[in-house]
Amino acid sequence: MSSVSQRVALNDGHFIPVLGFGTTVPHKVPKSELIKATKIAIDAGFRHFDSAYLYQIEEEVGQAIRSKIADGTVKREDIFYTSKLWSTFHRPELVRSCLEMSLKKAQLDYVDLYIIHFPMPLQPGDDFFPKDEHGNLLVDPVDLCDTWEAMEKCKDAGLAKSIGVSNFNRRQLEMILNKPGLKYKPVCNQVECHVYLNQSKLLDYCKSKDIALIAYCTLGSSRDAIWVDQKSPVLLDDPVLCAMAKKYKQTPALVALRYLLQRGIVVLARSFNEKRIKENMQVFEFQLTSEDMKVLDGLNRNLRYNPGDFFNGHPNHPFTDEY
Fold first, then answer.
1. How far is C-alpha 198 from the geometric centre of its chain's CA atoms?
2. Binding site for substrate: residue ranges?
């Protein structure tokens, strides 16, 4: 079964494919590899592509998508494309300009989903992480609710079909949900989620509000030294996960992805390896028993591979709350 038929409804009536292809590129990988991998992913059945202004690869992803539209493999409406608002564009008057830059780079007329990348506004400018002369992060005192109103205008303008958030904790989600005059509630919250960080409380909360949870770092992470503590455990080497993979005659990666899908989570997986990209589509070909789901629940250790250290000191840092 391909991912094409595996979609879930968002709270605004649009549908999102439950398996998505992540497009961040580790520093050691040339961007040309991303073009190739994105085309392979489309041929393999992926229809959901997760990108962001921060990643600086939207030209390449857009190029790959457009080439697959041009050769008749897919139509634009078959593709679900996500981009994200970066923290230096949180001022309401800047929100649309960030989206328009992403659209221009990808050469697309609209995104299917536009999300606030982090709930932490930074001062506008050319630096992704602006700092003062002492190395302190330059925080911008923007109200997230004002940013959200500008996001709503992007949806009204047809530049984004759906709008959501990423890396928000419960308290920050509630700020948006309780905003006077709220026009559209977030369709999703995209967060780090895997067997070592199963996000069960945040997942229950999001389900109760009809907000989809989208998981990144689903297989642990690419262990890029810039973001990830090199001493952290390698998730795919976990003995319980490996034993379960043997039992189901699957890879540990497929078991890890299947675990999230069966919990009602939208899953992002990233690879530049043709064999693994195609293999990830096999996640729809088997099912874990409820007993094995409970065993995997037990692997949770609240471990973040991406703790957001580059935002340390920001008053809005989301990971200081329990969830």
1. 15
2. 117
